[in-house]
């Protein structure tokens, strides 16, 4: 009995350790792959990769052809972590099938098989080859007969000497299956020596056969004959999934046969199938199940037809569709593992435990890929591998089985020390000890055992205790006791029954204007023993108050979870739910918030019809944003306007139910965009996207040029000017101006057409035009549609002549040091042939540069002018001439005038004064003028008098002594 208890105690400890640890058996990270190496590299070595993970790290072994490699007695083999490195490779010793074996305390797994092969090619035998003698027109086959080799070969034929290779065409073909050269019909140019060149694709080594001479017989040419197929594929050709399949077909014949291919089931070839080497090779890349079937090669010439058939059979290595996974189970449980693989042919299955074949016995059954083990014991723990195999490959799926045995343990799943529940609710108390095998449970309230089925209390099969419609009397201490053959354990918790929580003021449906703020209430009554938290959701998503704090804030304290929304936007409309969470229950209350705002932009503004001055528009309403749309405004834009402008419509006022309108008073031949703005009781919304740019129809100009005037120019010219008509008022293509003029008091108009829209001036030249003659002038506009209105008639004078005479009796005198007065006699109409508009006085400092020239003009009959801003005591040369719009006339006789000297620049000095009573006496030193200043003729005294009660003060300023001068 004592030994039995020790064994049970040990199993319990082992079971606990197994229960606590993470799955840690070895699993493959990198498995070895097939290698084919050149045999002739000196001192070469090979590395077969192997890497597994596990805890602790796995140890590695390798097998060759099913026999373990003893690394201790063979110094050519060594391990690098898990990879096997083989030095000084030997073809005879090292060729074969390798497997990597990984082991740690949890078990052993074996890797997939990997082959190591050596590629080589021997030399051809050195004996010479017999001459091949054929008749012209006959077909021939030159045999290659490759030497001993390993690894894939490629073939070519040399004609006469290297590097001249036989070029393959519809008459000549080199088979990559046999290496032979086939010539369908021999021609005289084919005579020569042929050498077979064989290349090993792995080693890149090349060997050459002895030359085969080809000669023509002299007994005449070969006649025509039907095709004879010399190259064809086998009756059944196995093809692997995903591989590139190549079928060869070539025939001898005279004339040279044509080659074609077909599937015997009549299904056409998919686009991936390629014909190469003049149709001698059919290539099928990425071979799939649907490519399997019968294929036929057809060769044909004028003498007949032959065919060769064969079947492509599909095969595929196994691949997993269901694998096994690491599993932890209790002692005495039953294991059921199933693995499934696809392949062609269908794979067979076997199982390995710790790298060894798993044999069937009473508890262990294997059927296809299914493994069942009944009544597990500790010895069943280990690494298992499901093996799927067909003749084309083998695959492994690995998993760890951990069998545990332990007494009940609540350390990971104890009852909560305090469990709260709402009165009237259902309470579930789970009893979930860790135990192997599964423990039997019972419940106690206080010291009283609870029976399996009572009125409101139920003990479920899995050990869970359920109490429905709980009351305050159900509160108290509850204990779950669990037992199995390895021991007993218990866990205790207290159940507290609380009063229900109620929402006493929840959110209600509301309407609000965009931009305003609102508080949505959520207030509750609750049991003080409960912890309460509030949250809010908006349209099904919890509100993040940190992220969205600009608009949302929880207010109200511990018994209220009111929601404040600041500066409400249209996108805040929707369903708001107050969520109340306590220790025992969750409550919610919802309301819908309608946010009213200006309407959203209308949609799909379309120009239905357009004329030269109107456009028929339609649109779809946008969102009304909680308030019905009451009206629409249409805006327009052209390349000539600054931004969008309101435009006239019919009807003039567009109500919210109207979705069409006619825009009027548009300019012809102008590209317009339109947009629509909606309004409601809240305000004006955002404008719609603009309509597609649309041009109004062209029309006759309806606007005449303005500001028609003119005059000036040179003799015999009539200058006419006007303000150009803006482009947006030109109404169509081919725009220009019509300038019409006639001498005053005549009837016949002269018309001039100007085709450049940007020109706003016309000059008419005619030697018969008298100076300053009046003309009636008007200007109109035209385009391709016709002529528009003319401007009102205005009078424009032709160019006039300059005055022909100079002013007479001109005189001047100096008024001061900076001013000269000039006087002259006006010209009468009898004295000059040109009109006089005024006079121009020209003056310049004597002997100075021309850039000091000054001019003063006066208009009308004025016959004098004062020239100011001159230098004192300076000589000036002065002349006068008359002027009009044509220019200035001849100058008068010029004469010189000297400005006066400037006044003394120094003030009196040593000013003294004496006040006796009301008499003030002043004295000062006299001022002596400098040589370039005028003489002193007197002094000026300035004063200012102030009276304050009985006191009088006379203030004398320094400038009062400025001298008088002439």
Describe, in short, the structure shown.
The chain is built from 2 helices and 89 strands. The protein is mainly β.
**Strand segment tally:** 89
Secondary structure category:
mainly beta
Question: How much of the polypeptide forms β-strand, as a percent range?
Answer: over 45%
Which term fits the overall shape?
Answer: extended
Distance between the termini: 156 Å
Give average pLDDT, whole number. 88
The helix fraction, in percent, is under 10%
Task: Note the topology.
Layout: H1 2-20, E1 27-30, E2 35-38, E3 46-48, E4 51-53, E5 59-64, E6 67-68, E7 77-80, E8 83-86, H2 91-94, E9 96-104, E10 107-110, E11 114-121, E12 132-134, E13 140-142, E14 149-150, E15 153-159, E16 172-174, E17 181-183, E18 192-200, E19 206-208, E20 212-216, E21 225-231, E22 236-240, E23 245-248, E24 250-254, E25 258-263, E26 274-276, E27 281-284, E28 293-301, E29 304-322, E30 327-330, E31 335-338, E32 340-344, E33 348-353, E34 356-357, E35 364-367, E36 370-373, E37 382-390, E38 393-404, E39 406-409, E40 418-422, E41 427-429, E42 434-436, E43 440-445, E44 448-450, E45 457-459, E46 465-467, E47 476-484, E48 487-498, E49 502-505, E50 510-513, E51 518-520, E52 523-525, E53 533-538, E54 541-542, E55 552-555, E56 562-565, E57 574-581, E58 586-596, E59 603-610, E60 615-620, E61 629-637, E62 645-646, E63 649-650, E64 654-655, E65 660-663, E66 671-680, E67 694-695, E68 706-710, E69 717-723, E70 736-743, E71 750-754, E72 761-765, E73 774-783, E74 786-790, E75 794-797, E76 808-816, E77 819-825, E78 838-845, ...
Parallel strand pairs: 2-11, 12-20, 22-29, 30-38, 40-48, 50-58
Antiparallel strand pairs: 1-4, 3-8, 5-6, 5-9, 7-8, 9-10, 9-11, 11-14, 13-17, 15-18, 16-17, 18-19, 18-20, 21-24, 23-27, 25-28, 26-27, 28-29, 29-32, 31-36, 33-34, 33-37, 35-36, 37-38, 39-42, 41-46, 43-44, 43-47, 45-46, 47-48, 49-52, 51-56, 53-54, 53-57, 55-56, 57-58, 59-60, 60-65, 61-62, 61-64, ...
